[in-house]
Amino acid sequence: MSRKVLTLVVVLAVAMVALIACQEDNTAAMEALQRENATMESEMAAMEARMAEMESMTAEMMEGGRLETVKARGNLICAGNNSLAGFGAADAAGNVGGFDIDLCRAVAVAVLGDANALEIRPTTAAERGPTMQSGEVDIMSRNTTWTSSRNAQWGNFAPTMFYDGQGFMVPTSLGVNTLAELEGAKICVQQGTTTELNVQDFDNQNNMNLEFVISADNIATNAAYLAGNCDALTTDRSGLVSTRAELDNPADHVILPGTISEEPLGPVVPHGDEQWYDLVSAVMGILIYAEAYGITQSNVPTAVTGDSAVDRLFGLEGDYGQEDMGLSKTAAQDIIRAVGNYGEIYDRHLTPLGLAREGSRNALWSAAPCTDCPKGGQVYTAPLR
Ligand SMILES: N[C@@H](CCC(=O)N[C@@H](CS)C(=O)NCC(=O)O)C(=O)O
Asked: What is the DSSP letter of 379?
């Protein structure tokens, strides 16, 4: 063999070996890829199975609605205030209680048979919309004004629990006695509230030339007022009474006569669950009608009384739709025994603040001398029948 031919054979042989090696490399890479693919496919299948499982769990929960969700969870999640004495405030041990919180306690009794099966989520004014929209709470009961846009955007408002209106508080030393005298004043106000919007309307409608000092929460708003950063503090009148009662020298501050808005305060439930809305509304009704019928924590009837309205309310005869709402027949017995009627709740939390009920809009409608008297209180709800 000539040298040239030999060189050619060697070159060809080397090329073939390289080709085979290359192919072997490729095969190994292919095999590794296939293995990876198979692992990914089986991981994807497992994920899909898990997602299907979660979807069916969610569908099951949605079918049962919030009532079933709360029962399965074993507690009620309630958005509340933790800095408004009387309505929702934390005690020294950090336990949050108050007039608004007692509604959540009543709902917890209605659904879970235990007033303490409750988690309170402290929520500032500005956090309320996002909190309700996220669906993370079952109810919000927190000095919240029912308005059309909140009803459309946040959730459904159950019956009003406290009828209020916006007022102003000033240091007594300012010598201001009327709202008109606030012209040109600096006003401390909390953001994310109807308060903030109403005071702008008030300013605009009356050419008051007000200046606003806006804070993010109740504590900061009150601190700004006490530090003298503004001339007046504005919020719901009940909020002013509550704040004033907590001050070192309440007499140094005066709540001016005059109300600039309507503030019907009540609980809100997430949109999209009528049964849950009906249940919460009925719990409010139970508190109110128990008071109207003279039933308190200490005289809850457990046997037929002969008064058909009382017997119906306490599940002793007839019904008011408990089954459709998912309430036990005798839910009212448990609720009133555990938290008391509307009047007892009011007296426990609001009377000590000096929020007089008699003659106010928060008296029962039936406290008027006749049922259609124009001067009766406004507290009543759908009759429980
Ligand atoms: N009712 C009004 C005002 C409610 C409100 O949040 N008021 C303030 C002042 S009384 C408050 O409770 N703040 C507590 C906080 O955000 O920490 C509304 O619904 O917007």
From this structure: B
